[in-house]
Specification:
- It contains four helices and no strands.
- It is mainly α and 108 residues long.
- It is rod-shaped.
């Protein structure tokens, strides 16, 4: 009986404090709009915003490449650099540096 009259349990006998504590526990853990659920959603929103910025940058880079390839000179430059194409009266010299040759020997 002395345990029930303890000074530590006295605040819990007040109905307002009990309702407040139940409300806090309900809002933090149980409810569909709980603090943890909102925290998880906010972190997901931040990640999606980061991905959105990344894709916007990729779109801008791709638009720049499309603009460069829309001209005859751009197509010719891309074909020469990426696919080593040449005109009939030209010779192409591919220069390999000493570092890249050493890496190829180690890979084999």
């Amino acid at each position: 009986m002395k345990f029930l009259n303890s000074k530590y349990l006295k605040p819990f006998k007040n109905i307002y404090i009990l309702v407040l504590m139940v409300f806090i526990v309900w809002m933090l853990f149980i409810d569909a709009h709980s603090w943890f659920f909102h925290h998880e959603l906010n972190s997901e929103i931040e990640e999606l915003e980061y991905q959105k910025e990344h894709y916007k940058n990729e779109i801008a880079k791709d638009n720049k490449a499309i603009k460069e390839l829309s001209t005859e000179e751009g197509i010719e430059r891309a074909a020469r650099e990426n696919y080593y194409m040449k005109k009939d009266n030209e010779d192409i010299f591919i220069i390999e540096y000493q570092d890249s040759i050493a890496k190829q020997d180690n890979d084999e």
